[in-house]
Amino acid sequence: MLTFFKKIKRDLKTKKKIKESLYFLLFFIISFSLIYLLLSKTLIYNFINYFYGSLSSIILNIFYGINTSFYYDFIEQVTFLIIPSIDYPVAIVFLCTGILEFSLIVSAIVSTIGFSLRKKIKWVLISSFLVIIFNLLRITFTIFIIDYFNLEIADFFHGFLFRLFLVIIVIGTYYFFLKS
User: Fold this and answer.
1) In the chain, what are the helix, strand and coil shares in percent, each to the nearest 5?
2) pTM of whole model > 0.90?
3) What is the greatest pairwise CA distance in the chain?
């Protein structure tokens, strides 16, 4: 652990590096807060949740062969997927929407100093696409596991895939952004 702090101290020797790091942190906190609040506390959230519910239903029907219908509850702000082989509806709740992952990666990209606006926009679009694709795969695969196996196995995979998704998409995309 001491080596970690020595590396940070070495990297932050100049006032310029300290200033850049503080700017990044400040911009990251501000942009994350704004993006997260905009996507989670406005009508945009309803659209995002509905989008994942409807597209997940289509994917489950076409690619997994699971007969699925969905409905969106505007009061609870939750999409429910109805699958005849499962006794209860599957809910797509806030954490299923990828808003957290999207907010983290976009905030990191836009807050990074030393990259052109064009490159930042390009990587925001790439990361948005990746969040949507991987999130749809995570949702549909979890529902497939519920349908094919049982809820206990699916619960394990759901938690595992959520953590894996968070790490791979957010850290992986940011890493490739920095290397590009």
Assistant:
1) 75, 5, 20
2) no
3) 63
Q: Residue 76 is encoded by which pair of tokens?
A: 């609870």
If one counts every other C-beta atom within 10 angstroms of the C-beta of residue 100, the result is 18
User: pLDDT below 50 — which residues of the chain?
Assistant: none
Helix (H, G, I), strand (E, B) or coil at 65: coil
Task: Tally Cβ neighbours within 10 Å of residue 153.
Answer: 12
Residue 61 sits at φ, ψ, to 5 deg, of: -65, -45
CA–CA separation, 152 and 124 (whole Å): 36
Report in angstroms the alpha-carbon separations of 97 from 11, 94, 169: 36, 6, 14
Within 8 A by CB and 6+ apart from 95, the residues are 162
